[in-house]
Amino acid sequence: MIISGKELSARLKEDMRAEVATFPEKYGRVPHLVVILVGDDPASASYVKGKAKASEFVGIRNTTILKPDTITEEELLGLIRRLNEDDSVDGILVQLPLPPHISEAKVIETISKDKDVDGFHPLNVAALWQKQPCILPCTPKGIIKMLKFAGVEIKGRRAVVIGRSNIVGLPVAKLLLDENATVTIAHSRTADLPSVTREADILVVAIGRPRFVTADMVSDGAVVIDVGVNRDPETGKLCGDVDYAAVEPKASVITPVPGGVGPMTICCLMENTIECFLKKF
Ligand code: GUN
Predict the structure, then answer these.
(1) Domains (ranges, CATH) in the chain?
(2) What does the DSSP 8-state code read for residue 2?
(3) Whose CA is nearest to atom 4 of ligand 1?
(4) How far apart are CA 139 and CA 142, in angstroms?
(5) Whose CA is nearest to atom 11 of ligand 1?
């Protein structure tokens, strides 16, 4: 079974669109998301366009601010502080990665935690790990939604997450734990990684290496969630972290790249923006 993140996100965006259509009458306006892109990296530019397109579909007001990579850290932080103060803005997202002269940590902590639609602010991260109400990071939230949509039982299962980033690996491990899976966090330096991943009922791969997960690393019937977005070194096409052709026949459930986790991330960003908006009323 292939989980289409594209299909699920389309359904969820339809529902959000209907909900948002009721907002002008109820609240006098629609939610407003501001996305900041620094520089002109084509991959980042394409993600930012996807966010604007989804906003337009759902009926969320989107402002995309493009800044040259010559912007100073202080200028960028000043812009964020002004957006924090602006009551017409509900969500602020600064597309990562940033140029090396700008501290990502400073940028993330400058965004007001109540407008932090990415769920990256240290106070949101702390709230997540302390089981307090928080804004959930989009990709991990999208992965849990996909598993539930596919009818995958999480409780009591063994989950292995490959990758320990703040954006995906660590929070997805925490969300799986909260769903009562038993979770192992592995990484590129895990000794005898295949013996670890073969134990997984649910394998989540977020390592950023094309075809890193080979068939010998996956047990029969495993659920495989591929978070990778890479360029295939041979064909130049978009590909995941999983050798899809080899692993798909063994997996009971698998997500494709593209069309798997990616669309769910954007869908959850829309959800988070609506959530930040509604908290104001
Ligand atoms: N760069 C890659 N993924 C993300 C994301 O989810 N949010 C932001 N802000 N930047 C990213």
Answers:
(1) 27-118 (3.40.50.10860), 138-261 (3.40.50.720)
(2) B
(3) 96
(4) 5
(5) 96
